[in-house]
Amino acid sequence: MRFTLSSTALSSKLVALSRVINSKNALPILGDFLFEIDDNTLHLTASDSENIMKTQLELTESDGTFRFAIGNHDLLEAVKGFSEQPIAFDVDLEQRLVKISYQNGLFSLPVDNADEYPVAQPVNEFAKVITLPNSILAENINRTLFATAQDELRPVMNGVYFDLSTDNLSVVASDGHKLVRNKIFSVSSEEPAAFILPKKPASLLKNLLGKDGGDVTIRFDERNAEINYGDGILQCRLIEGRYPNYNSVIPQNNPNEVRVDRLGLLAALRRVQPFSNDSSNLVRFHVEGSTLQLDAEDYDFSKTATERMICDYNGNPLDIGFKGNAFIEILSNIECPEVVIHLADSSRAGLVLPSEQPENQEVLMLMMPMLINS
């Protein structure tokens, strides 16, 4: 049995699929790519048992319908260095061997029985469906992924929460110290629904999306999701449990407003933050008139830093402490030239918003304050 295809097309597909495969697997077959040849099309699959990614590509030629599995590491290393050229696979299922020939040589690898490869559990017939542009989903995953937790006691916090309501789709992540809520007003449903996407499939999508202008279709039930992103499908197990009421922690009345250059504040924080205490990472924000002052100190090592910058502020003088590295992450995940920081007092959460919201969206980021010595 034989088939021929483009070396670069195969390499790009295998590189994308390889991100699913774990370095150590409970089942040896999960270290393989699954090859399925049917009607001059190659269907490729990779899995870690909880996440299954599928894609396909057209073959130059093939001589039948057959399946086999092949170890990911050796095959990937062999083909990813090829320049564009045709490569041919000659598969002997009885000998469990494949010979792969190209312009200047050939190599052979063992193959495994495709029947041992795990089958994905499909979403049920009553699955909910969300359809949204590829680029919008990519933006929202990029904005939220950094705020997910790594919490063994509260696994629901370890994923990205998709909350579909009659008004919008909210994409939310929080680790208890910071929170990101993106509202997408172009997506809604007469029947509310929600799911929690684990961090690994969210990270996989982050690398796959945004490369074309098509739509993504998400079908999900209580346990599983199937995400069709154009040239592939990602099937994954969802995090089960009830996500906290994130809207209840967002303050509704933070009257003090600081408008400041995002890149300027980001650069200042990166200079000041290394001088903070390693355990607390506390940076003090003092805002008064048209000046925002950042202070960090670590008296154990006799380190201090202060930096001032121009801002537009409309409230009374205020001191508030934030975790410096977390604030840097928030500013790094906003695209707007200016940010608006809404504050109330030193004990209430601060809100960070872009000065101009993306079209048909609302981006809000929250930072819990830290106790500062007066």
Task: Please provide a written account of the structure.
The chain is of the alpha+beta class and 374 residues long. It has six helices and 26 strands. Helix 3 packs across helix 4 (199-208) and helix 5 packs antiparallel against helix 6 (324-332). It is elongated and about 80 Å long. The mean pLDDT is 93.
Total beta-strand segments: 26
Order of strands across the main sheet: 14-11-12-13-26-25-24-18-22
Mean of pLDDT: 93
Percent of sequence in beta strands: 35-45%
Q: How many helices does DSSP assign?
A: 6
Radius of gyration: 25 Å
Structure, briefly:
This protein is of the alpha+beta class and 374 residues long.
Task: Summarize the SSE layout with pairings.
Blueprint: E1 2-6, H1 7-18, E2 32-38, E3 41-47, E4 51-58, E5 61-62, E6 66-71, H2 72-79, E7 86-92, E8 97-102, E9 105-110, E10 128-133, H3 134-144, E11 159-164, E12 169-174, E13 178-184, E14 193-198, H4 199-208, E15 215-220, E16 224-228, E17 232-237, E18 256-261, H5 262-272, E19 282-288, E20 291-298, E21 303-310, E22 312-313, E23 318-323, H6 324-332, E24 338-343, E25 350-354, E26 361-367
Antiparallel strand pairs: 1-5, 1-7, 2-3, 2-6, 3-4, 4-17, 7-8, 8-9, 10-15, 11-12, 11-14, 12-13, 13-26, 15-16, 16-17, 18-22, 18-24, 19-20, 19-23, 20-21, 24-25, 25-26
